[in-house]
UniProtKB/TrEMBL annotation:
Native source species: Nematostella vectensis (Starlet sea anemone)
Domain of life: Eukaryota
Protein keywords: Leucine-rich repeat, Repeat
Region Disordered: start-end pairs: 688-709
Pfam families the record matches: LRR_4, LRR_8
Protein name: Leucine-rich repeat-containing protein 9
Signal peptide feature range: none
Family matches, as PROSITE patterns: LRR
Length: 889
């Protein structure tokens, strides 16, 4: 009698006789009308109670015998006709249960007047447990007899059907093995089972129209719709929803919604399911004042304080809220914060709200604002910063070691505020910083591990030197604009993303800044913290190594921590790169910077023109828009621009006054037209292979490909290059430059080098202008200009020419400059008579021009000349020259 009623509840199987009552339809009758009265079973010749069993074998035995008997009568060849069956599982209150008597008397309520139900154990002759250690148990008793029983309940109201189970017996032998077509059929079944499921296509509503909504809901007007299900469409907006003024239930799960503005001001809406979307804010449900059910799980909601504050103000009738699977700030305290603000909630995230939870949440909500009592209990009035080797904040150290609590006078309740210098309110569940305006002398403050979302309330704290806000929900780097003495700032473990907000410009004395465990992707803005000495940026989302360039203007940065950012793992030679660009560093990622690392970094990155170098100089990395680059006097030694795909629009490059020895990565700038490399150390277009030993040189001398001066051995590069400046590079030979690899070159400038002969121009058939001034050329060979038939202008001044032979290939020559050479004989000018298109000639400051006899000769013998030595040829001069030489004849 003392047992709980729950212990008297059992789940039993309905046991029915196929030969009695409705036969095979008896389970359906039970499901439709309930169990029969015990007297009905008694009148049918059965035991007088609702027949049940706690075993499938016991409850299904009558059916098995009945189906097997029918199969034999019909001559069925199926050895397992009973394979498929059905069970009714009922919840039964057995009440006072007694075992059935051994006498073969039918079970009736009259036979057991004091019992609510009777159970009959199953007799099991074949049980192996009846013979254990040679001892045979008497009668039909066995260990499993008490486990498998049939039950008879005398009150049908105590039996409630709950489940219907369809089942199949799995036999050891395949039921189809007895037929000749069994293998084929089995194979066919396997194929069907392995088929991909066929999902019937359902039209998706990408956008809503009034006509579509009317047809979908089968109504004549939008105002008649009270329930609308738009689950599983591709909707990114809910147009026309506002017109459904009577709508009470709206389901828009599994769509592409980012906001809910269209739901705003739906006064009768009570149920809203917006799960599995892309919502970033709940501002759109402000006007739904009767909303009681809201499901926004599986979205992109982040800002806990803002969303809860909105719901607290506008959704006062909300009783069910599901916010699971969103990237909330500080999810560990979300439940308590939500319950503290939404006091009518009954279910939150699928769990019922208990009274204990609600009381705890309300206490937390009451303590989420800073009160005078909280400041008084966690403040100190120390004037000197303690000297301690600790990583904790100064405010925490002072509060733990000092006993200088502010005294609160009875007559004046405000004087003690101005004496406070240190406040430590860590782990107080604070949601907002307030009541700090009276702390005008506050120097050290700590508010770690709270629920703060903004930096605020410090406008009056002009003496603030240290501030720690670690472990909060701050997402904006702002709020400290009137704290010029701030030297130490900790904002680790927040949600900051950008730093370029102008706040660092207002903190001129900031020396320590910790921004670890945030979501920072860019370091722009840190260049304004010119006094910064320690910077901690570990475990953020910095992926581009070029962000380091924002730190170069900081002259005294000695400690930098970037560990845990993607750029650390994804950048080759990351450590050397940072050390090279930030030369003042003494420690990087927790390891001291060794002196030899600086030298290695200089060797690895010094004098290299890379994409990082260009981005640093230009201040951006939008290389695809570049048309020209100008980097003279940069001490460049190599060029490495990768494949050049980022510089497809680059047309002009000026790298004068550097230390390049070859074109290097410039050969990948396929669209380059003008290249200026004056005052470098260019030896060839590409770096030549290192010289082999004398022993191997003889062996390889006959191998093809070792004559690097032969232009035919090289593939073309810079196929669009038209102008090349290689002046003042101390080039001893033109052939060593491999210029024949530049097939479209039209202007070549080689002035101021050490060239002694003209060769290596065989592949430059399109050359129009050639400048060889200030070299050491003594003569021109017959092969020097053998392919330069398109050459129009040739400058070869300030050389050592004595002979003007072998210029007859220049048939289209228009201008020729031979000044300041060693031409001594007028007969040398006769070798120029074949240049029929020459219109300008300069031979000034040669020995042959001292007596000025060359001019009339050139005018007479070369009638095409229009200018000699920079002076135009007049018609009078031409007439006099002709008369003079005709008289000589």
């Amino acid at each position: 009698r003392g047992r709980s009623h729950k212990k008297l509840l059992e789940y039993l199987f309905f046991m029915w006789e196929p030969d009695a009552l409705n036969g095979e339809n008896e389970p359906i009758t039970v499901l439709e009308n309930g169990f029969r009265q015990p007297s009905v079973y008694e009148d049918a010749g059965l035991d007088g109670g609702v027949p049940l069993a706690n075993s499938v074998g016991v409850s299904d035995k009558p059916r098995l015998e009945h189906v097997t008997k029918l199969a034999k009568q019909r001559g069925s060849v199926d050895p397992y006709p009973y394979r498929h069956g059905q069970l009714i599982v009922a919840k039964v209150f057995v009440g006072r249960a007694v075992p059935a008597r051994a006498t073969p008397v039918k079970i009736t309520e009259r036979a057991y007047p004091c019992a609510d139900s009777v159970f009959r154990p199953r007799s099991h002759e074949a049980c192996q447990s009846r013979n254990v250690l040679g001892i045979t148990k008497p009668g039909n008793q066995c260990e499993c007899s008490s486990r498998q029983c049939s039950w008879f309940v005398f009150d049908q109201e105590l039996v409630l059907p709950e489940y219907v189970v369809d089942f199949e017996y799995v036999t050891k032998v395949s039921p189809f093995s007895y037929t000749s077509y069994a293998p084929d059929r089995r194979t066919h079944d396997d194929d069907v089972i392995n088929m991909d499921p066929v999902v019937k296509p359902r039209p998706r509503m990408i956008a809503l129209t009034e006509e579509l909504l009317l047809r979908h809901c089968r109504v004549e007007a939008l105002q008649q719709i009270t329930v609308l299900n738009l689950h599983g469409n591709g909707l990114n907006g809910l147009k026309f929803i506002n017109s459904m003024t009577a709508l009470k239930r709206l389901i828009v799960s599994f769509n592409e919604l980012t906001r809910l503005e269209d739901v705003n001001h739906m006064l009768f809406l009570e149920h809203l399911d917006a799960s599995f979307n892309k919502l970033t804010t709940l501002e759109g449900v402000k006007g739904c004042s009767r909303l009681g059910y809201l499901d926004v799980s599986w979205n992109q909601l982040q800002y806990t304080r803002e969303e809860l504050g909105m719901m607290r103000k506008h959704l006062i009738t909300l009783t069910y809220l599901d916010t699971r699977h969103n990237p909330w700030q500080k999810t560990e305290t979300l439940r308590m914060r939500a319950l503290g603000r939404l006091k009518n909630l009954e279910f939150l995230d699928g769990k019922p709200v208990t009274d204990e939870e609600m009381a705890t949440a309300l206490r937390m909500a009451a303590a989420s604002r800073i009160s005078s009592f909280a400041i008084l209990a966690h403040a100190r009035t120390d004037q000197v910063k303690p000297r301690a080797l600790s990583l904790r904040s100064t405010a925490e150290i002072i509060l733990a070691s000092s006993h200088n609590k502010p005294a609160r006078p009875l007559d004046d309740d405000s004087q003690w505020f101005v004496k406070v210098t240190a406040v430590n309110l860590d782990n107080q569940h604070l949601g907002k910083l307030s009541n700090l305006e009276k702390l005008v002398h506050l120097r050290w403050a700590s508010f770690n591990n709270n629920d703060l979302t903004k930096i605020e309330g410090f406008e009056s704290c002009s003496s603030l030197e240290e501030l720690s806000l670690e472990g909060n929900c701050i997402s904006k780097f702002e709020g400290l604009v009137r704290n010029p003495k701030l030297k130490w700032l900790n904002l680790s473990s927040n949600n900051l993303t950008i730093l370029d907000t102008g706040m660092l410009e207002r903190l001129p004395e900031l020396r320590y800044l910790s921004l670890e465990n945030n979501n920072i992707t860019c370091l722009k803005g840190l260049q304004h913290a010119v006094e910064l000495q320690e910077l901690y940026l570990g475990n953020n989302h910095l992926a581009n190594i070029r962000e380091i360039f924002s730190l170069k203007p900081i002259p005294m940065l000695v400690i930098l921590d970037l560990y845990g950012n993607p750029l650390v793992e994804n950048t080759a030679n990351y450590r050397l790169f940072v050390i090279f660009h930030l030369t003042t560093l003494k420690a990087l990622d927790g390891l001291a910077v060794e002196p030899n690392e600086g030298n290695v970094a200089k060797d690895a990155f010094g004098g290299r023109m890379t994409t990082d170098f260009i981005a640093e100089r230009l201040g951006h990395s939008n290389f695809i828009e570049l048309r020209e680059l100008d980097f003279p006097y940069c001490s460049l030694r190599t060029v490495d621009l990768g494949s050049g795909e980022m510089f497809l629009n680059l047309r002009s490059v000026n790298l004068e006054h550097n230390s390049l020895t070859s074109f290097g990565g410039l050969i990948n700038l396929v669209n380059l037209k003008v290249l200026c490399l004056n005052h470098n150390h260019i030896e060839s277009i590409v770096t030549k292979p290192k010289a082999t030993s004398p022993a191997n040189a003889g062996k390889r001398s006959g191998e093809p490909g070792n004559d690097y001066a032969n232009p035919e051995m090289f593939n073309p590069v810079l196929t669009n290059l038209e102008v090349l400046h290689l002046g003042y590079n101390s080039i001893p030979s033109i052939s060593g430059l491999q210029l024949s690899r530049l097939p479209n070159l039209k202007a070549l400038f080689l002035q101021g080098n050490e060239i002694t002969k003209v060769d290596g121009l065989e592949g430059l058939q399109d050359l129009r202008e050639l400048v060889l001034d200030r070299n050491k050329i003594k003569c021109i060979s017959e092969y020097s200009f053998i392919n330069q038939w398109n050459l129009i202008e040739l400058h070869i001044e300030e050389n050592r020419l004595k002979d003007l032979s072998n210029l007859d290939h220049l048939q289209y020559q228009v201008r020729l400059y031979l000044g300041m050479n060693r031409i001594q004989d007028l007969s040398q000018f006769e070798k120029l008579e074949s240049l029929s298109n020459l219109i300008e000639l300069s031979v000034i400051n040669n020995a042959v021009t001292r007596r000025l006899l060359h001019r009339p000769m050139l005018v007479f013998r070369m009638p095409s000349l229009l200018c000699i030595d920079g002076i135009p040829v007049s018609s009078d001069e031409r007439t006099k020259s002709e008369m003079y030489f005709l008289d000589q004849q």
